[in-house]
Amino acid sequence: MSDSRERRAKVEISFVVNGEPKTIHAYPMERLLDVLRHQLQLTGAKEGCGEGECGSCSVLMDGILVNSCLLPVLQAEGSSVVTIEGLAAGETLQILQQAFLDCGGAQCGICTPGMILAAFHLLDKKPEPTMAEIRDGLAGNLCRCTGYGQIVEAVAEAARRRTVA
Amino acid sequence: MPESVIHYPSSENYVMSSDRIVGKSVLRKEGRDKVTGRSQYVDDMVLPNMLFGATVRSQIPRGRIRKITFGGGVAWDEFVIVSAKDIPGKNCISLIGDDQPCLAHQLVNHSEEPILLLGHPDRHLLPKAVEAVSIEYDPLPAIFTMEESERRSEIVWGEDNVFKTYLIEKGDVDDVWEKADYIVEGEYTTGAQEQLYIENNGMIAVFNAEEGITAWGSLQCPYYVHKALMALCDLPAEKVRVVQMETGGAFGGKEEYPSMIAAHAALLAMKSGKPVKIIYDRTEDMAATTKRHPSRTRLRTAVSKDGKILGGEIDFTIDGGAYLTLSPVVLSRGAIHAGGPYYWPSVRIRAKAVATNAPPHGAFRGFGAPQSLFAMERHMDRIAQVLGLSPVEIRRRNFLQPGQTTTTEQVVREPIDLANLLDRALELSDYHSKKQRFKTENQLGSARKGVGLAAFLHGAGFTGSGERYLSSVVGVEGCADGSVRVLVSSTEFGQGTKTVLSQIAAEALALPYENVSVAQPDTLEVPNSGPTVASRTAMIVGKLVQSAALGIKQTLISSNLLSEAYTAAEFRTACQQYVAAHGQFRSWSRYEAPADIFWDDQKYRGEAYAAFAWAVYAAEVTVDLATYSVSVDDFVALQEVGKVLHPLLAKGQIIGGVAQGIGFTLYEKVVWQNGRMQNSQMTNYIMPTSSDLPPIRVFFEELGNVYGAYGAKGIGELPMDGPAPAILNAVEDALGIAFDAIPLLPEDIMDRLDKDRLDKDGLDKDGSAASPRFSNSGVGSGGGTR
């Protein structure tokens, strides 16, 4: 390999992914998205734009929703990251996943992992959001298929199911 | 207001043989994988020793390639480099015509034209290498607008820059002008629109001498890619295999361009002997791949004083970009829909697709119809204005009635009652009381509100004789474990293909939905059921699935393995026994054109579509006079789409289509410079977010359809047609100003209002008129001030 990238040192980075401690070697400025997808084979996070506009690479880092395409993996050191793969408990879907399935919140599915994590983050901060709050809360995640109507309904339905459960 | 409501009227015409699975909102087949992130899209797939591919594109709109230099700082010996001379077969992307090269050899005709391909194991090294290739050209003059193309100062395609023309003539339109009480003219334009599926285009290809080429990708039409690869690689059908991966949105944008990317990946794979993955980034995807055709429609209508259209001329022109691609078919659909859902005693429609030096425009949901229907529905409001009639009344007086003929002289056989559909839309949207209320409220404050309507139709399936030529084949397999599998090349990309086709097979075989699956579209495995386009899958492919499924049942019954009435367990056993005794158990069904459907390709006359979906949409908008922004506050989408096979999916299709329509109208502007898209990022090409859109209220009427599976019609494209005219009609209602071009951005409104103010000020100086338009005492609403 001739590129100077290769001569720069990779660093050791330790963080928790979906509850499991991981230690990886990566270039400090590598994107968290690439480390998740290529090194850890967690392909649920998607690259839609690579510039933090579409939100399809959204993951939770220490409970905060981040665009993993904008985050240098160095910043993940010591943190706890949750991806879509970490949401369901085995074969039992998380409430939001089930609500997306029941309400038609997933069409082509490419924005769905990020959208569900954004909704998870929203309900974490605001357990009983109004329809308008849901629309505002998800505005950082783009969906081209649904026109958002059934996504908004799915999140409202999940909030209802959470209060009943 | 509820988020949205599905309302089912009880209809006497409701055509349904059973209501067991069809008509129910069963869970999406692949939904579980999608909500857990397990679905495999092409970029999620990794093969051992895989290279990554990148494309070196033209930097100029038109010219002759003089010299290619591979610059310093790059270890070129590590790269696989492919040029046009590495193509084993024909250097073209074979589709309707063979004019588009796979890689430019000597000439380039647009500024995103592929010239070279680079392959390397490290994807991060590719952008720098692409930049290090410098290409010298002898530039040729280029043209960028339809008007330049029509002037023919420069011929950039064929002999006259014209890809295709159509002439539709009905009655004697030359006679109507002198009988007319009014002649109303208008010109309407629409811009390019990017499909903006969230998954960028991508493809993986592998080559070996025994098996030939295999390509896995994000795509709509496996057999289009198959055909293109055969011609390019000079391989027989059995040595080309195309597999669709889970596809993250398409909307027409993955109808044709995937053939180009598969061709590129295949060439790199053939030269390197390794698997090659090409994944576009967003900028490349937006700039280089197809977008909706920009259009210009001129309408000239003869109208009687009681508000009847007597006849007219419609000139419909689209910009096809640099190569033919799908433009003839887009043009055809646009031309056939140009007359809207109205009765024209006489009409002459001239349609033309012209060449420019932009990347080729292509398929996007609606396929020409949103462009020409925008014009027609804006023009109806213009006629109403001229005659002093309401937008409601002008439509009511001209609606097509059963027994009348369309512009192509297709007799309307469906018992559609458009006046009733209109009334229902008015009621659901509270149109009349809003219109009254806004008239008063618009006198005050810094916002103006308005309501607008659009009535329209959308033909399902391929146009004219298209379905006959396609001659689609569908298979249904009884499997060794007793389950049933649908074999089609029809692809799932969000619309619910797998779900709906499973419902149809389950319904036909009286089996639980869970017992039916749909095979992954793989040309080695599935027959050619045609492309997944043109709102044809539920209606036409669905009907074939229904008939192939019945073949399975009949075979089991005639083999005495099953009686006429059976349980799911008995079916399973019978199917297992049949496979054990006879081996593979498949039933095939091929499309046959109904005897009563006739189309004349020469005269462009006859049954253009086996069925139309019909709709009336109503938009309510607010125009903010401080920011000039338009917001859509309420949207009612009422449509007759035959039997609704899956209410939840159908509603999702309509809401999604309306959202794209709102984007088309108010947000999404492709900024061109010398035929190149300047805003090819999600940061500066703006699509609606969840907070930009109102709740979109969806309502269905269900008349049924004898040609579709269980009475279904096409549904996917329809919702793209109505929003643009409904919204611009509402903006005119709010401001009293007619806008006839989309996208309509705040700066367009600002320019127009400023210009109007200046004009008025000028008049004031002459002492001849008018207070500023938007003072509290001024005029605002109702449109009487033009």
Would you summarize the structure shown here?
The complex is a heterodimer of chains A (165) and B (786). By secondary structure, chain A is α+β, with helices and mostly antiparallel strands.
Note the topology.
The complex is a heterodimer of chains A (165) and B (786).
Chain A: H1 4-7, E1 11-17, E2 20-26, H2 32-39, E3 58-61, E4 64-67, E5 80-82, H3 95-103, H4 112-125, H5 131-137, H6 149-164
Parallel strand pairs in A: 1-5
Antiparallel strand pairs in A: 1-2, 3-4, 3-5
Helix pairs in contact in A: 3-6
Chain B: H1 31-36, E1 51-57, E2 63-70, E3 80-82, E4 107-108, E5 114-120, H2 126-132, E6 133-139, H3 146-151, E7 162-170, E8 182-190, E9 202-208, E10 212-217, H4 222-233, E11 240-244, H5 257-272, E12 276-279, H6 282-288, E13 295-303, E14 309-321, H7 327-337, E15 347-355, H8 369-387, H9 391-396, H10 418-429, H11 431-441, E16 447-460, H12 466-470, E17 473-478, E18 484-487, H13 497-509, E19 516-518, H14 537-558, H15 568-582, E20 585-590, E21 599-600, E22 605-606, E23 611-624, E24 630-640, H16 647-666, E25 672-673, E26 676-677, E27 696-701, H17 723-735, E28 741-742, H18 746-765
Parallel strand pairs in B: 1-12, 8-28, 10-11, 14-15, 18-19, 24-27
Antiparallel strand pairs in B: 1-5, 2-4, 2-6, 3-5, 7-15, 8-13, 9-10, 9-12, 13-14, 16-23, 17-18, 17-20, 21-22, 23-24, 25-26
Helix pairs in contact in B: 4-5, 7-8, 8-17, 13-14, 16-17
Protein architecture, described:
- The complex is a heterodimer of chains A (165) and B (786).
- Chain A has helices spanning 4-7, 32-39, 95-103, 112-125, 131-137, 149-164, and strands at 11-17, 20-26, 58-61, 64-67, 80-82.
- Chain A has 165 residues and is an alpha+beta fold.
- Chain A has two domains: 4-86, Beta-grasp domain (Ubiquitin-like (UB roll)), CATH 3.10.20; 95-164, Orthogonal Bundle (DNA polymerase, domain 1).
- The longest helix of chain A has 16 residues, at 149-164.
- Chain B has a domain at 466-590: Aldehyde Oxidoreductase, domain 4 (2-Layer Sandwich).
- The longest helix of chain B has 22 residues, at 537-558.
- Chain B has a seven-stranded mixed sheet with strand order 3-5-1-12-9-10-11, with helices on both faces.
- With 786 residues, chain B is of the alpha+beta class.
- Chain B is globular.
- In chain B, helix 7 links the parallel strand 14 (309-321) and strand 15 (347-355).
- Chains A and B meet through helix 3, helix 4, helix 5 and helix 6 of A and helix 1 and helix 16 of B.
